[in-house]
Protein 1
Amino acid sequence: MPGQWKNGCKVVANTVHWGISDMLTDDEAKRYERQIRIFGEDGQRKLKKAKAFIAGAGGLGSSIAVYLTVAGIGKLRMVDNDTVALENLNRQILHWDNDIGKKKLASAEEKLKKMNSNVEVEIITGTIDKDNVDELVGDSDMIVDAMDNFAARYILNKTALIKQIPFFHGAVHGFYGQATTIIPGKTACLRCIFPEAPPPTIPPVVGVTVGIIGCIQANEVIKYILGNRSLLENRLLMWDGLKAEMDEVPLEKNPRCEDCGEG
Ligand SMILES: [Zn+2]
């Protein structure tokens, strides 16, 4: 509920446009006509029933949220604690000149509602930590990584393992980006892939790179919801924007992983 405090985080807006129903409205049937040809109405209804948790409303969060919104996901829950600044605007496409000084989530919610009023957008202002993450993620069907630091990513990775929900990882540096889809119990987890966090930095970022990686993450989310099995499972996709090349690194679960291993 708006104004309610949860574990140190304040729900500043909670916009509900409809109760979750199995049926597509006339607006939805028309709006999604070109993708229903691929997904089928059943697939579109699966999207309508899905709830995605997006951690972060910056560059990756903008790209992910925009494409899940226009695709007709049922509910987005976004968590962030930042304020829009001028130096964000080269890449964080949900935030515009006149949003400088606003909370990123207020700016994000305003744009997403205008894009597709069928989508329920819930925003929670706060910083993710190990004590509040369980409640923040709640009953979301998946966690999408739009963070800029590994400390928060490890917390989200562990939460996905505990809740047995997928974790869609993405990260960027300059023209380079990476993405993988983590399925608890099946694939390597983030800790298997990166046992230790790289040193924290403020990396250079090209806006196009977060656009591409965020779109890959959103694409994975949509395919997962639809039941497509060709996901980035145990595959770290690497994007090199300078060479316009993609490569991938095969991944393996580490049986001694401190987060998902057997001890
Ligand atoms: Zn692991």
Protein 2
Amino acid sequence: MYVDSHCHLSFPELSAKLDQIRADMAAADVDRALCICTTLEEFDAVHALATGYDNFWASVGVHPDNEDVREPSVDDLVTLAARPRVLAIGETGLDYYRLNGRSIADMEWQRERFRVHIRAARATGKPLVIHTRSASADTLAVLRDEGRGEVGGVFHCFTETMDVAKAALDLGFYVSFSGILTFKTAGDLREVARYVPLDRCLIETDSPYLAPVPYRGKTNTPAYVPYVAQQIAELKGIAPEEVGRITSSNFEKLFQPERNPETT
Ligand SMILES: [Zn+2]
Ligand SMILES: [Zn+2]
């Protein structure tokens, strides 16, 4: 009934207990998950999850925070995106949170990496999984400049303002909410979630990070994504099952998993 649209099951703290996680997902009615790639070095492990289980899929991309990793070319991304069960390009975007003494001008390498991902999304027709932190104006500017209205996707783990949400919706993107929505301090974000139309919302865990209340601070897993649905349901005044049904249908529209059925 629920889909986790963004998790990192290849990370060691989760991959070591995959059987338990899958059992917990089944018990919580979480029937599918999109496993997100953050480095080319990690891609084979992410892809193995997607080809090994008929309810996991994969993305391909290099996270903006990752330095000292293999830099992807458009060709690299296009080639890997053609592998079975790869539904999306990302996660990609801009993250100026940890500048470590650098200026925003110094972060041109991130903007160039982001452009490479957008070009790969245009070439493959696959949606972008966008990560943006302390960089929303540049993220939108690069998307407008490079995307030319031809790419869609999702702003994942949304924590930005109402204005950024409106801009993302105007560009045709979906907005994905994580466990942060359940945090006591997230009042402004709850107003954003109340505003974003349900037919443009996705839900995610970003496991192993950001476990929702009542598990805040613990290791997150896709089995907790219903807590995000529950929070949205309260904001919208509808049943959590309805949030599950609509966000699952949004997931299908955006990522088209039925086009990539084959597992090994
Ligand atoms: Zn992210
Ligand atoms: Zn992530």
